[in-house]
């Protein structure tokens, strides 16, 4: 029972972290239009382009794509967790399996956050890795 409660807490945190990431994306996009320093940085990022699979994308395009889609991926992962638990013949076993998968995923994201020194990713993914690891251990 406690594992399922903690798992649900983890899913809620994923939704909240996704929302925070999305709001940060919106705030940065707004700042790029109003803050002269951000506008200069945005202009420089837009100027650096690369051709990928017939498309020409700027560094800014890649950054915005990642920022927006990371939120979407967190929301989808949380939704998949809720649906999987609801459909499982044995929800307790499903909680353990999903927590293990989510825990490993968060450890990988924690590693990349640490590698690129992204404090928000270190905190969020570290918290979720510990939480999902605990759920996996309890389940």
Gist of the model:
The protein has 139 residues and is mainly alpha-helical. The chain has helices spanning 2-34, 36-47, 59-87, 91-115, 119-138; strands at residues 49-52, 55-58.
Describe this structure in words.
By secondary structure, this protein is mostly helical. It has one domain (2-138). The protein has 5 helices and 2 strands, in the order ααββααα. The protein has helices at 2-34, 36-47, 59-87, 91-115, 119-138; strands spanning 49-52, 55-58. A two-stranded antiparallel ribbon has the order 1-2. α3 packs antiparallel against α4 (91-115) and α4 (91-115) runs antiparallel to α5. The chain starts with a helix and ends with a helix.
């Amino acid at each position: 029972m406690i594992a399922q409660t903690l798992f649900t807490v983890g899913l809620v945190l994923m939704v909240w972290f996704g929302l925070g990431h999305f709001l940060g994306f919106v705030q940065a996009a707004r700042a790029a239009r109003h803050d002269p320093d951000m506008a200069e940085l945005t202009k420089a990022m837009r100027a650096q382009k690369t051709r990928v699979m017939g498309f020409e994308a700027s560094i800014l395009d890649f950054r915005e794509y990642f920022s927006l889609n990371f939120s979407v991926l967190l929301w989808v992962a949380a939704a998949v967790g809720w649906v999987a638990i609801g459909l499982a013949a044995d929800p307790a076993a499903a909680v353990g399996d999903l927590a293990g998968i989510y825990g490993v995923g968060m450890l990988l994201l924690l590693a990349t956050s640490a590698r690129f020194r992204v404090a928000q990713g270190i905190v969020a993914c570290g918290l979720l890795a510990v939480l999902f690891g605990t759920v996996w251990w309890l389940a």
